[in-house]
Amino acid sequence: MEERLTDEPEKLDDMDDPTADPNTMPEVEAEGEVDEDLVGLTPSRLKEELASREAEEEKRKREYEKLLAAARAKREKGDFEEAIGLYRQAMLTAEDDEAEIGLWAAYTREYTSAECFATAKTANLFARASAAVREEVLSRMGAQITALRDEAAEEAAPLRTEVEAGMSARREAFRENDAYWRVRFLIAAGCFVLLLIPVFVCGKLLYSRPDILMPVLLGVFGVLAFAAFLVAALVGHKYYVAHRFVTDNEKLSSTEQGRKLAVLEARLSAFTRALEGPTEDEEQDEDDAEAEGPEAEQETESEEGSEEVPEGKIEASSEEWEDPEA
User: Fold this and answer.
1) Cα angle at 322 between 317 and 326, to 5 degrees?
2) Contact 130/97 with Cβ under 8 angstroms?
3) Which pick of 83, 160, 173, 261 has the fewest CB atoms within 10 Å?
C-alpha cells in the first residue's frame, strides 16, 4: 500500500519530464470523475489544455467582475433597466448568487417596489431562482409581495362573484337563441340540398325530350335552389352570431368587468407564484437537468420564455354584448 502511494508522485513528475514518451496516454481524473476531454492526451498536450482552461477561467472571471461593476454603477445612477441587462450578462458569464441578487435589487428598484412580481414571466423567473437568492429577496420584499397579493385577492373576490352572476344570467338566453337559429339553419340548408336534386336530374335529362319541359324545369328548380342558398346563407350568419354569443359569454375578455377580473387574477397568480417558489415537479426537473449536465439545464431554461396564462382570461376583445336578435 505504501509503495502505491509513493509511486503516484513519480507518475505526475513524468508528465513534466521532457524525455517522457509523447505517445503515452495518461488518464486524468478530477475528484473521482474522469474528464473525457483530457483522456488520451499526451503530457505536453495535456499541459497546454490545462493552461488554456486556466487562462479562459481567468478571462471569464475578469469579464464577470467588469459586468458586476458596470451594473452597480447603473444602479447607483438609477438606470435600473440597463443594470438588469448587465446583470443578466453576468449571470450568463458565471454561476454566482451575487449577480442574481443584484438583478432582483434592480428589478425591485433597490427593494422599494414589488410590482415587478405582478407579471407571470418575472414571477416564474424568481420562483426558479436559487434558495439563497429567494431567501435574501423575500427577507426584504416578502411583506410587500404578500400585501399586494392580499390586495388583489380582496379586490378580485367580489368582482368574480359579479362576473360569474352575469355570465349565468346571460347563459340561458344565449343558448336558447343559439338553438333557435340552429334549427332554422338546418331547415334552410336541407331545403337547398333537396332542391339541388331535381336540378341535377333535370340537367341529366335535359335532352331526353324534344319539348322544352326539361329546360323549363331546370330553370325553375335552379332559381329555387339559388333562393334557398341565399336564405341558408343569411340564416347561417344569424346562427354563427348566436353561437358566438354562447362561446364568448364564457370568456372573461367579453366584458369590461371580466377583463378587469382577468388582470386581477393574473396578478394574484403571479404574486402567489413568486411567494411559493418552484413546484415539486419543477424541483424534480432541475435535479434531472443537473444529473444530465449543463446542456439539458440550458434546454430547460429556454423553455421558460413563454408566459403562461389561463385559457380565455386575457384574450383582447373590443366587442361588447349586442342584442342577439339584431
Assistant:
1) 135
2) yes
3) 173
Reference 67, options 32, 91, 101; nearest CA is: 91
* Helix, coil or strand: residue 272: helix
Note whether 271 and 123 are within 8 A (CB).
Answer: yes
Residue 296 cell numbers, joined:
439539458
The three cell numbers of residue 112 are 422599494
pLDDT in tens, 230-289: 999 999 999 999 999 999 999 988 889 999 999 999 999 999 999 998 876 666 665 555
Question: Which residue ranges form the domains of the chain, and what is each CATH number?
Answer: 2-107 (no CATH), 147-302 (1.10.287)
Q: Do residues 235 and 306 lie in contact, with contact meaning Cβ atoms separated by under 8 Å?
A: no
Position 316 pLDDT exceeds 60: no
Which residues face 30 on adjacent strands? 33
Scanning the chain, the segments in alpha helix (DSSP H) are 2-16, 43-77, 80-93, 97-107, 120-127, 131-204, 213-248, 256-276, 280-292, 294-302
With beta carbons less than 8 A apart as the criterion, state whether 188 and 227 touch: no
Local structure of 29: helix, strand or coil: strand
